[in-house]
Amino acid sequence: MAACLPASAELRGVDMDATKFPRAAELPPNCAMMQHNALRPFPEPMLGAFDMVHVRLIALGMKKGDWEALARNLFTLLRPGGYLHWEEVADSSWKCVPPSRAFDEWKRTVALWAIRVGRDPLMPARLPLVLRNCGFTDVDEKTWNTYGVEDMMRGPMNKVSTEAVRPILLTILEDGGSEVVQSVQDVDRLENEMRQDVLNGTLVGFTYTWIWGRHP
């Protein structure tokens, strides 16, 4: 993005995990990184200082009450007329064609665990309502489905559908397991069945959503 904007533009990257930051020597001169938990108020010098705030793919780390708290904090960063642009993938949008028993079992296991740990299964579908309640105007959204792309993103989606299974199931197992996942052997079974289904031609897809709103 820095290469597409005037040199006078100032870019700030924010994450609560500083290990994800690029090395300072790799950053453009007009870009800086900051460690901060965005669920907490931002420092005073940042308030009302930004023309645009961009949020991307944080749903996995969000509890039910976090969405509104974060939206309110992001609102404070924007100048009047500034925009928030938010990108997410909904857990409920994942599909599998043709149907896969292993995928359905995995999806149900993950959904029940997500509810158990306090995540909101209705997000990001209700995010536009949250933004309006927090004061944003001109709120709108646009969605893309991976099945609507020319090649249906077959390569990347096959990779996601196999490589995402194990780490998520291991997290569930470490958190006490589920009716399906009680041991590493259960994880192995689901992972192997999913890989076999993908090799047999099953294709996983999902809906990608952009939501945006303006500070009046």
List keywords for this structure.
216 residues, alpha/beta, Rossmann fold, 8 strands, two-stranded parallel ribbon, four-stranded mixed beta sheet
Describe the model.
- The protein has one domain: Rossmann fold (3-Layer(aba) Sandwich), CATH 3.40.50.
- Strand 3, helix 1 and strand 4 (78-89) form a beta-alpha-beta unit.
- It is of the alpha/beta class.
- A four-stranded mixed β-sheet has the order 3-4-8-6. Strands 1-2 form a two-stranded parallel ribbon. Strands 5-7 form a two-stranded antiparallel ribbon.
- The chain has helices spanning 66-77, 101-116, 127-133, 154-163, 165-174, 184-199; strands at 11-15, 31-35, 50-56, 78-89, 95-97, 137-145, 203-205, 207-214.
- Helix 1 (66-77) crosses helix 3, helix 2 packs across helix 5 and helix 5 (165-174) packs antiparallel against helix 6.
At a glance:
This protein has 216 residues and is of the alpha/beta class. It has six helices and eight strands; from the N terminus they run βββαββααβαααββ.
Widest sheet, order of strands: 3-4-8-6
Distance between the termini: 25 Å
Helix/strand order, N-terminal first: EEEHEEHHEHHHEE
State the helix count. 6
Proportion of residues in extended strands: 15-25%
Unreliable parts? none
In the CATH hierarchy, the third-tier topology is known as Rossmann fold
- Counted up, domains total 1
Look at the structure and give the CATH class.
Answer: Alpha Beta
Rg over CA atoms, rounded to whole Å, is: 20 Å
Mean pLDDT: 92
Query: Helicity range of the residues?
Result: 25-40%
Q: Characterize the biggest β-sheet.
A: 4 strands, mixed
Please state the second-level CATH architecture: 3-Layer(aba) Sandwich
Number of strands: 8
Alpha-beta classification? alpha/beta
Broad shape: globular
InterPro entries: SAM-dependent_MTases_sf
Organism: Colletotrichum higginsianum (strain IMI 349063)
Protein name: Methyltransferase domain-containing protein
